[in-house]
Amino acid sequence: MTLPTQEPTPSTLTSKKVNIQTFGCQMNEYDTDKMMEVLRHENYTYTDNCKEADLILVNTCSVREKAEQKVYSLLGRLRPLKEKNPELIIGVGGCVAQQEGKSILNRAHNVDLVFGTDNLFDLPEMIEEVHRGNRIVQTERKAYKQKVRNFIPDFAFENISKPGLKAYIAITKGCNNFCSFCIVPKTRGLEVSRKPENILEEAASLIAQGTKEICLLGQNVNSYKAEGVDFVELLGHLNEIDGIQRIRFTSPHPKDFHEQLADAIRDLEHVCEHLHLPLQAGSDTVLERMKRNYTLEEYLEKVELLRSRLPHASISTDIIAGFPGETESDFEKTIEAAENIRFDQIYAFKYSPRPDTPAANYDGQLEEAVKAERLNRLLALQEKIVAQKHQKLMGKQLEVLVEGTYPRDTSSRSGRSREHHPVVILNSDANIGDLVDVRITGAKKYSLEAIAL
Ligand code: SAH
Ligand code: SF4
Ligand code: F3S
User: Fold this and answer.
1) Does 19 contact ligand 1 (Cβ within 6 A)?
2) Quick check: helix, strand or coil at residue 451?
3) What angle do CA 195, 24, 65 make, to 5 degrees?
4) Smallest CA separation from ligand 1 atom 14, residue
């Protein structure tokens, strides 16, 4: 890991502009913020406008085929910029970069630099190499054997340029689960946990800089363990930080969701009453072929574990429609599960074969039309459930963290409740960052309306 020099070197004295395009999950958004911090120390400032950038970085996602295609079409759209300005440096990072490495340089001739998910803190040296006229691929993994490693250097969270009201903190990276459909263990590597004191320092630093809500990140966040501290204990320590208002985390894996964690969500004042618990499928045959390590019944027990303690907690999930070999009756079990559990939100996806994952070679790959029809059926059901759930929330009192002015009506404010419901507070002059108690008075398709109490 490279620490940036405190004093700018002569080559960095003039300010340069960087634009970063981010695809994928929260982990990538977090990595983008860290890239920005590394580059800020190299005298780069951020620009939204890629036409005026000296450096464009594309932080990529390869979880589904569509995400990957988007990257290549963006690289194609950047070609004219490079033709106009040959000094422009274009770099590709993130999961597609880790997976494809050198072949990106072969496929996209305007790319100067490809860097993997473990290499973002080496950006200054890589950029220097590009200035020397080389095209670079750096996707080397850091030592796997170290299961505990502080993979975020202190400078990336101390005195950051734009502390957000809400901030992510990666507590683990990588995944040891190897679900049969998933590319993530390949792109992010095996699971590594950060030392608890290092995480607490990042959290305290963000809170001191004005952040109100932190969201802990990990591909399998609740399997966190370092120096004898497990996920529940870590939540307990974070809950004690002076000034912290809200704590969220994503994504917990059902197999590691247990009573102690359900108790912690109930008992720790700042931990929000929302759980994102990916189900993926409702049929045990499919779950087994996905290598998810739980049955539907076990998953339902986890839901019950939370709801018995916190009946009003919200639960969201991820579902894959059209996994190889999924029969109509398998998929009906997913529909039935969604009807019974009544999730607050479902992120549903058509199965997408990923390179070098076992499921990509399974028999029974389904037609796009079958996958699409199943996906739409699930989404239509979920729309009805959400509308019913919104009606049940009428008149209820919730606490909203104000995140901004509502764009369509500047006399209103928008934010999220502790349960993660998007809420518009009508006729409100609350400030960004305020916690406002509201009463729910109405509902739109994707949000609730409320008045401040
Ligand atoms: N670690 C999280 C998931 C991370 S990937 C978990 O285990 O739940 C985010 C979501 O993308 C997954 O939950 C899954 O629903 C979806 N996904 C991953 N690979 C996919 C694939 N090959 N096709 C379709 N959806 C996929
Ligand atoms: Fe992928 Fe499974 Fe790991 Fe989630 S738990 S990141 S779905 S391998
Ligand atoms: Fe995509 Fe990588 Fe995240 S594949 S979902 S950016 S871990």
Assistant:
1) no
2) strand
3) 130
4) 318
Which pLDDT tens digit goes with each residue over 100-136?
A: 999 999 999 999 999 999 999 999 999 999 999 999 9
Contact at 8 Å (CB) between 334 and 319? Answer: yes
Q: Is 104 exposed, middle or buried (0-12, 13-18, 19+ CB in 10 A)?
A: buried
Q: Which atom of ligand 1 is nearest to the CA of 360?
A: 22
Q: Return the CATH architecture of domain 147-392.
A: Alpha-Beta Horseshoe (3.80)
Give span(s): CATH 3.40.50.2300, the chain: 10-145
Distance 63 CA to ligand 1 centre (A): 7
Q: What is the pLDDT of residues 360-372, one digit of tens each?
A: 999 999 999 999 9
Question: Which numbered ligand comes closest to the C-alpha of 60?
Answer: 3
Coil, helix or strand at residue 227: coil
Q: What is the pLDDT of residues 311-332, one digit of tens each?
A: 999 999 999 999 999 999 999 9
Q: Is 173 in the pocket of ligand 1 (CB under 6 A)?
A: no
**Which atom of ligand 2 lies closest to the CA of 253?**
5
Return residue ranges of the chain for CATH 3.80.30.20.
Answer: 147-392
Distance 250 CA to ligand 2 centre (A): 12
Measure 450 CA to ligand 3 centroid, in angstroms.
Answer: 35
Give the span between the Cα atoms of 40 and 330, in whole angstroms.
Answer: 51
Residue 364: CA atoms inside 13 Å, Cβ hemisphere, count?
12
Q: Is 250 in the pocket of ligand 2 (CB under 6 A)?
A: no
Distance between Cα 95 and ligand 3 center (Å): 6
Nearest CA to ligand 3 atom 3: 25
Whether 25 is in the pocket of ligand 2, judged by its Cβ within 6 Å, is no
Nearest alpha carbon to residue 239 among 220, 257, 213, 217: 213
CATH number at 397-452: 2.40.50.140
| Ligand 2, atom nearest to 185 Cα | 8
- Candidates 3.40.50.620, 2.30.40.10, 1.20.1270.220, 3.40.50.2300; correct CATH number of 10-145? 3.40.50.2300
Closest ligand to residue 185's CA: 2
Residues of the chain with CATH 2.40.50.140: 397-452
Cα-Cα-Cα-Cα dihedral sign, residues 350, 356, 362, 366:
positive
